[in-house]
Amino acid sequence: YRRCAASTNTGSRPFKCSVCQKTFSQRSHLRVHLRTHTGQKPYECTVCHTSFAQWGGLQKHQRTHNGEKPFECPLCVKKFSRSCILQQHVLSHTGEKPYECTECHKAFRSPGQLQRHLRTHTGEKPFECTLCHKTFARPGTLRVHLRTHTGERPYACDVCDKAFTTSSALKAHLRIHTGEKPFECSECPMKFTCSNGLKRHMQTHTGVKPFECSLCRRKYSRPYDLRLHLLSHLATKPVVCALCDKEFSSSSELRSHVQGQGEEPLKCKVCQKKFATLCQLFSHLRSHPEEIAYECIFCDKKCSTSFALKRHLRTHTGEKPFECTVCHKQFSQPGNLREHLRSHTGEKPYKCTVCHNEFAQSSQLYSHLRTHTGEKPYECTECDRKCSTSSALREHLRTHTGEKPYKCSVCDKKFSSSKGFHTHLRTHTR
């Protein structure tokens, strides 16, 4: 004891680690340090069997089981299980943030917060999923991700029994029942249930337009508006007027065309009232639903024209009057036949003006444009994941439901995605 006390008083460090050459003033400190090299953890929790290298570590851990919180805040009487957490909490009262980022000078209350923030600059993601090898910057994010594999949903709604993988998803869901809209616009009386809704709305006040067209530099506040604008650069015109089959590059052009149709005044067949535009006539016709409606004999659906009714009836009769002259496949609509014929001709009339990729269908082009705009309109109701296509969302939802619709006919193994299924099939053909 006298030798240890003397070493401490004089500042000498006579005990050296043979592995890393680090020195210590006491032999006991060296013994504890050596466990960082050997991996020895002699102190085990009797409740959950987690092991620790130091007795103090075990003591702190045991408070997670017994609920003991011996450290009390002198300002708000809140209690904590560890002194370091209390010290960080006290800073929330003083406003002090002593840990500053050297890259952007943002300040934090704890070194842990600073360390997590630094990963936004370095891109470091040290926490890896052992199942799919996806990496994450935070351990909490990894824990939430693992639930997509296990199907665990620990946060359940008390009202409708719907369950969620995160507490934040449950909190957002509960607003459907309560009607709460905590995110309020500072410029107008509008309120929103989620922060993203408020963020999008604020752009109408600030005039911020972060989405820029790479061809003409025109800017938009929403990715959806940019996607619509990109169509105006297309050589082809994918929007078709149902009345005269004329093609237009955007829905707004089609609207202008419909509103200006007809040099003669348009007359209502029921009451003979006249209108300047088709839009006005169509709006008026809704006032005569019984007189103008063509009713389906199979269901209660009513159509405004005989042509629309005829087209609808094919969904019941299965009639497919439009046949491909190459492979004799039949279709219920002429538009479907036109798209099918491109599989024989190789024609791809819908061209992306950004990367010049070509597509056979306008819907394929719309989906592709989202790779340029970054728009992901399909949002998962179970987690924060967003997808650019409805099919990608359907596939993602299977990670929550556990559904595996693709079954191998050779070994009966099942898969949640067609990609995984086809990759597996190659293992049988090798």
From TrEMBL:
Chain segments annotated as transmembrane: none
An example of a Gene Ontology BP annotation on this entry?
Answer: regulation of transcription by RNA polymerase II
List each copy of the C2H2-type domain by range.
15-42, 43-70, 71-98, 99-126, 127-154, 155-182, 183-210, 211-238, 266-293, 294-321, 322-349, 350-377, 378-405, 406-430
Would you say which domain of life the source belongs to? Eukaryota
Q: Which InterPro entries match?
A: Znf_C2H2_sf, Znf_C2H2_type
> What SMART domains has UniProt attached to this entry?
ZnF_C2H2
Keywords annotated in UniProt: DNA-binding, Metal-binding, Nucleus, Repeat, Transcription, Transcription regulation, Zinc, Zinc-finger
Q: Where in the cell is it found?
A: Nucleus
- Quick one: where is this thing mainly located? nucleus
State the family named in the UniProt similarity comment for this chain. Belongs to the krueppel C2H2-type zinc-finger protein family.
Its name, as the record gives it, is: Zinc finger protein 84-like
Source taxonomy: Eukaryota, Metazoa, Ecdysozoa, Arthropoda, Hexapoda
State the gene name recorded for this protein: LOC127751622
